[in-house]
Amino acid sequence: MTLILSRWQFGITTVFHFIFVPLTIGLALLLAIMQTAAYRARDDEAKRATWEGMAVFWRRLFLINFAIGVVTGIVQEFQFGMNWSMYSRYVGSVFGAPLAVEALLAFFLESTFLGIWIFGRGKVSDRVHLASIWLVSIGTMLSAYFILAANAWMQHPVGYKIEGDRAIMTNFWAVMSNSTLISSFLHVFTAALVTAAMLVLGISAWHLKRSQKAGTTAHPVFSTSAKLALIVGSIAIVATMFFGDNQARLMETQQPMKMAAAEAQYNTQNGASFSLLTIGNLSGDPIFQIRIPHALSVLSDNSWDGPVQGINQVQAKETATYGKGSYIPVLWVTYWTFRIMVGCGIVMLVGLVWGLWLMYRRKVDTSKWFLRLAVPALLLPFLANATGWIFTEVGRQPWVVYGLLRTAKGVSPIGTGYVVTTLIGFTAIYSILALIDFGLMARYAKLPAEGVDEHGQPKPTDGSGADEDADRADDADDRVPALIY
Amino acid sequence: MITIATAAPAYTGLEIFWFLIIAVLWVGYFVLEGFDFGVGMLLPVIGKSDLDRRVMINTIGPVWDGNEVWLLVAGGATFAAFPNWYATLFSGFYLPLFLILAALIFRGVAFEYRSKREMPKWHLAWDHAIFWGSLVPSLLWGVAFANILRGTPIGPHQTYLGSFFNLLNVYSLLGGLTTLLLFALHGSIFLSLKTTDDIKERAEGTAKVLAPAATVALVAFLAWTYVNARNIHDVGIVPPFVPILAVVAVAAVAWLMREKMAGWAFIANAVAMVGLIATIFLNLYPRVMVSSISPAFNLTIGNTSSAPYTLKVMTIVALIFTPLVLVYQSWSYWVFRARVRRPAIGAVLPVAEPSGAADPSGTSVPAADPADPAAAPTGDGGSR
């Protein structure tokens, strides 16, 4: 019981944490770009005001999101020891190092310069203020790199030896340049950019749609935001897919069972087809399937007729290596999460290309259906992020460290009652936080842009006698970001 | 100078070095997060109005998050350098750590979300979150350290065999009270340095009340620790000037506050915390957790440590990057050295009144005193 409850707790807290993290990583970089553009346009008042207005608008959402990412991150670092103490003993020498380095290099950088960025305007020069958001952005990337180094080692252990009953690090550089790490970092980082771009695009689309309905000019803040999001998002989604494909290739050699489980493919095939969807069960003889011929071979082996290993063959091989037991993860989870992730990616790619084409024809601001669909589409990257992680973690089971330590052997020897308490506790706390956070995000996403009017002219932020929007009262607060806390 | 239990195994220099590093990280955490916990706990005491509480929160606004990273680094360093210590401590002290995490979660978002709605009830709810979120960890860190030193039921295979209630005893609760009072005192001195007018006066008054209380608690806790060290652990406490220094430092706080030397009082209180952590770690050494079942089951730097290679790599990383971190974190304190003034806040912030839709722009102009340079840069919303 302790095992299954601990797994649920880790799953819930991690998926929740990862709703916010990619947005933080992506938005930090977008904000750095916006603020840089504003800084460089300081001789062109209209342009400067627009970029400045963008930075002011998106920064509110960034900060609401950042706070929750930070506090849920503390739980992550503590949980290994609390619920997975046997795992911690086994891997500490290898796994603990990137965690400690992450805190020292990334967390200090992020938190200190975020403080400077929020409160420091007027206390430091504009140049230092601009540098501070870049340092925050670099901090988020470093953080991703080090935590993924730890995770990549669980997927594909390198640079270690087994001594007694634990793994000992023998080569730090091997751990920090793990092929799995490079590939997953690039996939996760570009996916984070897609996440931020889709959010910026969706919210901008909502505002553009509103000015369409009201018959007013598209506000430059949202018009420019949408364009920036389209450019960054399109590049990032292509990169995400490219690196995802790269990961699949590594997976085929490093974790063949996961690749087979992604497809629920029972037997090794040459020129394997990609199953688009399956109705019935995943036991090997489905009732109805749609398959794309050769696609799986192309994806995982980069060749038309390349072999893709099947579940039965990998199971037999792993039994021979590791002894009796099942080495098959929960197939319906791996099969469907993989499909949802890839599906969301494809839909976003199509949508972003559509947007680029509209942008080329200068029709983004006036388009009808694109703007309407972009709003709900902002949920897609979040769904893809969650299913991607669920796939990669469930797909590794029954291992916690692939080929070295089974998940069941990593759990803490603690009473079930304790885990029940914290599972309920964390779930309750996170649910409350989610409600508050989503409420605030929605509220601040709907606020009008400030500091610049519809014609790109700077205007004082005191908007007296402006529209009687219900959210207007909050503006008072936003004029003093120094008082953001 | 240091009395080690007989037949102690030899420890490598790296293990001792990392034991020292972890002690230093906890010192950093207590000295820095100590004052922001203190400010949080004193919100209802010193903050008479919503605006007062906002001023108080703003004194720690730019720095609390960086202060908390000291805890994360301490946790990460323990994991990497002494995995078995990390594993036993975190799984053994399971529920207290959950309470600490819950507190830190609500407190962390409270700083960010409090200002997001202009409703008195909303502000008040987050003020509660900050208060409890600061108080609970302040108490529980003391409880945890007292238990680590006092001894908990750790059996063979470094497994914690006790329950939650083994962690509640008079000695550990006294330890908790000591850290709570020290942090509250630290916060009140910090506020007296970072605020003006009546808030500053109330902070000074609070510090004068808290200083004797913290002194009594620290003396009692260290005396008890001294007796335990002699009678139970049979190791002695070394060197004796460390706890004495802690007591002298905290006793000096009351006098320094009376003499209007708040800066020195802050330093004295920090010295007291250094002395407290140093006493605990010196008393522990070479152990990292004491077993109340048998000394044979004690966790030591030897039987919990990571591989020498990991320690070596970590040492290099720490030696390169710690100075850099110290430089920019100190610089950020320098940037925010100015006192937080209520007029400056009032100048740009409408006081939230439950009744009437006050025109925000109305209150802003007259209060902006051109003679007060601190007032001008505070609001950076639009024009620069």
The oligomerization state is heterodimer
How many distinct folded domains of chain B?
1
Tally of individual helices of chain A: 15
Which architecture of chain B would the CATH scheme give at its second level? Up-down Bundle
Structure report:
The complex is a heterodimer of chains A (485) and B (384). Chain A is mainly α and 485 residues long. Chain A folds into two domains: 2-255 and 329-483, no CATH class; 257-317, no CATH class. Chain A contains 15 helices and eight strands. In chain A, the strands form four sheets. A two-stranded antiparallel sheet of chain A has the order 1-2. In chain A, a hairpin with a 3-residue loop joins strand 7 (399-401) and strand 8 (405-406). Mean pLDDT of chain A is 86; it is low at 462-485. With 384 residues, chain B is an all-alpha fold. Chain B is 71% helix and 1% strand. Chain B is built from 15 helices and two strands. Chain B has helices at 13-41, 43-46, 50-60, 64-81, 83-92, 94-113, 120-150, 170-194, 197-231, 241-258, 262-284, 301-304, 308-335, 342-348, 360-367; strands at residues 287-289, 299-300. Chain B has a two-stranded antiparallel ribbon. In chain B, helix 9 (197-231) runs parallel beside helix 11 and helix 14 packs across helix 15 (360-367). Chains A and B meet through helix 2, helix 3, strand 2, helix 14 and helix 15 of A and helix 3, helix 4, helix 5, helix 6 and helix 13 of B.
Gist?
Chain A has helices at residues 2-40, 45-83, 85-119, 126-155, 172-176, 179-214, 220-254, 256-263, 295-301, 311-322, 331-360, 369-377, 380-394, 416-445, 475-478; strands at residues 160-163, 166-169, 269-270, 274-279, 288-292, 307-308, 399-401, 405-406. Chain A has 485 residues and is mostly helical. Chain A folds into two domains: 2-255 and 329-483, no CATH class; 257-317, no CATH class.
